[in-house]
Design a protein that fits this description.
Strand order of the largest sheet: 2-3-4-1-5
Radius of gyration: 32 Å
Largest sheet: 5 strands, parallel
Structural class: alpha/beta
Distance between the termini: 96 Å
Helix content: 40-55%
Oligomer: single chain
Number of strands: 8
Shape: elongated
């Protein structure tokens, strides 16, 4: 402790950190009366677990509450500042506690930052009960925690706080002596709700924003007045929750793809904006739109693929922010285009047969015969050149014998594909009628 340590006030979020379950806000699906996690905490029967949820929902706070309730030693461990050496030291301490009959809870914040070797260092101690591991992560543990460790932990999913829960938290901060309970804060009705909406489920952001608003208010004696202008300045800009390599990356591109598939241009443009404004590479989005053009629109509107490729080229030529409009044009076009997944299904069906029947020989009639030996082996014998016929069709067999009669491409009645469906039906009817002419 230094001479000046007590003169530096803690942030509001730290001062208001709950110390017991009764003060904890949110996660009623886990901590409501009779819920499983609450029963485990109250009965002191905690086992190894992982708290997974977005920032500011109370993962670390919940671990500290468990520390206050449990009869175990509690070690707070950060994945950001610790390595294998520190892990071994902590594990040895826990092993010593076990020998004296004392449980040890090791809380690892941001456990997803540990590599596989570091995570593996915990495994033997979790297995033999030397420690109860509680990990906290904002990333999907299915991707970020190795399977052996994950299988020995119960995963609890923490949810973003609701606006109502955040408003209650902010009102408590105004009244609690640990917060601003010793001063009178004059705020217009609805300001706490505006802060809560801005925080988007993050309690830490909500409290930090309230603190900024109050500290920038006008002071008159023991009263602090917060104006609408001050509030607007404090919540004018917010970083979007986005990790270009994490789960949210896949969540948002999935939302875009499925909104276009569901012919919802408004939702599609919203998810597009969420990605681009958070810094996503526009070329990545453009590539996904190109895929969509064939997977979900296909020949119902062949122009969709042209539109998507043009958007990709525009993004490549001029980049952000200008290319946001080209992507918007492509996304809206895809949303409103007639939909067909016939091409996607055709390839998937054909791929299955191709993988199961990799050795099927190419029919001799459609093989090339560039050498004399190949001619002697009947390569290309009986080949019919479609352009030499009036109908531009022949009844020649192009499928392997074992797949004869298989139909992979089944066009829909959507858009231009309806015309292709009629054409395909005519071709098949002609070939069936002329099957014996080969």
């Amino acid at each position: 402790m230094t001479l000046f340590e007590n003169s530096v006030p803690q942030p509001l979020a730290a001062r208001l950190r709950p110390l017991k379950l009764e003060e904890y806000v949110g996660q009623t699906h886990l901590l409501g009366n009779g819920k499983v996690l609450r029963r485990l905490i109250e009965s002191d029967q905690i086992s190894s677990m992982i708290f997974w949820g977005p920032p500011g929902v109370g993962k670390t706070t919940l671990a500290r509450i468990i520390a206050n309730h449990t009869k175990a030693a509690f070690i707070d461990f950060s994945a950001v500042t610790s390595g294998i050496k520190e892990i071994r030291t902590v594990m040895q301490q826990a092993e010593n506690n076990r020998r004296y009959g004392e449980k040890t809870i090791v809380f690892v914040d941001e456990i997803h930052r540990f590599n596989k070797a570091q995570q593996d260092a915990f495994l033997p101690f979790v297995e033999k009960g030397s420690i109860i591991l509680i990990g906290a992560t904002t990333e999907n543990p299915s991707f970020e925690v190795n399977g052996a460790l994950l299988s020995r932990c119960k995963v609890f999913v923490l949810q973003a706080l609701t606006t109502k829960e955040l408003v209650a938290l902010l009102e408590r901060a105004r009244k609690d002596p640990r917060g601003f309970g010793n001063v009178h804060i004059d705020m217009e009705p609805g300001m706490c709700e505006a802060i809560a909406n801005f925080a988007n489920g993050d309690a830490r952001t909500a409290l930090s924003t309230l603190e900024m608003v109050v500290l920038n208010g006008d002071t008159n004696g023991s009263t602090i007045t917060v104006s609408a202008e001050t509030l607007e300045q404090c919540i004018s800009k917010k970083s979007l929750l986005y990790d270009k390599k994490g789960e949210e990356h896949y969540n948002l591109i999935s939302a875009l793809h499925k909104s276009m598939r569901n012919s919802d241009p408004d939702a599609a443009v919203y998810w597009l904006a969420r990605m681009l404004e958070a810094g996503e590479d526009p070329l990545y989005v453009a590539r996904r739109v190109i895929r969509f053009a064939s997977e979900d629109v296909g020949l119902a509107d062949p122009q969709a693929l042209t539109t998507a490729v043009n958007a990709f080229q525009a993004c490549h030529f001029i980049g952000m922010p200008e290319c946001s409009l080209h992507l918007t044009q492509a996304v809206v076009y895809m949303s409103l285009a007639p939909k067909s997944n016939a091409l996607y299904m055709a390839y998937e069906y054909a791929k299955k047969d191709a993988l199961e029947q990799l050795s099927e020989p190419v029919p001799l009639v459609i093989r090339n015969a560039p050498t004399k030996l190949m001619e002697e082996l009947s390569y290309g014998e009986g080949y019919q050149y479609a352009h030499d016929t009036k109908e531009k069709l022949t009844s020649m067999q192009c499928m392997p014998d074992s797949l004869l009669g298989k139909a992979y491409y089944c066009p829909t009645d959507q858009g231009m594909e309806a015309d292709l469906k009629k054409r395909l039906e005519q071709i098949k009817a002609w070939k069936e009628a002329n099957a014996n002419e080969l």
